[in-house]
Amino acid sequence: MPHTPAARQVPRDDLRKLLVHGMPAGTPEAALRGLLPAGAPALQGLELAPGAGRRATLVFAHAGDANAAFALLQAG
Question: pTM (2 decimals)?
């Protein structure tokens, strides 16, 4: 049976982002940037959750870079 696409689509720009969650409050930005292993695509930006929450978003140039970074993180 063919898969039916979801009615709600992710905005194209969001496909280039990876959410980091469950980090200790007050984690420094340098530590977040250091999460990626050697050889990972370069970050284009970092979006911190409002109120210094336990989430941040790593922003890449395009979805392919985000997918490559995620694959490297999974291979860990």
Answer: 0.81
Instruction: Place domain 14-75 in its CATH homologous superfamily.
Output: RRM (RNA recognition motif) domain (3.30.70.330)
Give the domain ranges of the chain.
Answer: 14-75
Which amino acid appears at position 52 of this protein? A
Residue 58 — φ and ψ, nearest 5°? -90, 130
Distance between CA 76 and CA 61 in Å, rounded?
22
Phi, psi (5° rounding) for residue 10? -75, 135
Please state, as a whole number, how many other Cβ atoms lie within 10 Å of the Cβ of residue 56: 21
Secondary structure of residue 49 in the 3-state scheme: coil
The answer to which of 19-23, 31-35, 47-51 has the lowest mean pLDDT is: 47-51
- For tokens 């940037």, what's the residue? 33
